[in-house]
Design a protein that fits this description.
Layout (H helix, E strand, L loop, with lengths): L15 E6 L3 H17 L7 E6 L5 H11 L4 E9 L5 H20 L3 E8 L2 H7 E3 L2 E2 H16 L6
Parallel strand pairs: 1-2, 1-3, 3-4
Antiparallel strand pairs: 5-6
Helix pairs in contact: 1-5, 2-3
Length: 157
Amino acid sequence: MPNTISISAVDPADRYAIVVAQWNRSITSQLLEGAVTMLCEEGVAESRIDIAWVPGSWEIPLVAQRFASSGNHVAVICLGAVIRGETTHDQHINRGVSLAISQIALETSLPVLFGILTCESMEQAIHRAGGQVGNKGADCAEAAMQMVGLLKNIPTG
């Protein structure tokens, strides 16, 4: 029978970072609220959550990299909302940001979560920021805690 690696419980000493975009703030503030609420409900004290606001989603990876490289955080949660407009601008942002975030996670061996909505309309974003589809910020925070708990139980080297 294969060995199943379990997820550790949340450690109250752990520190989490959240990078959130100001662009589409009516959406991103709801994602942030969902993420913070989820972390706190699972035992993370608000004083153990560092939040950095950046101008837009394009700026998220640089600050996420700084947090991930600091050695002070067990995970970085990236929150933003890129909504399709009349041009392909959104596609370039989404591609660049998603690739950068995954690269940061691999380079730092730290969970760096992609909580950036990539929606066709504002209505879709509203549904994903606490509306009919739930709150993707909360989902992202939950995934961050699960990844932290899992990585603690996977041997290195």
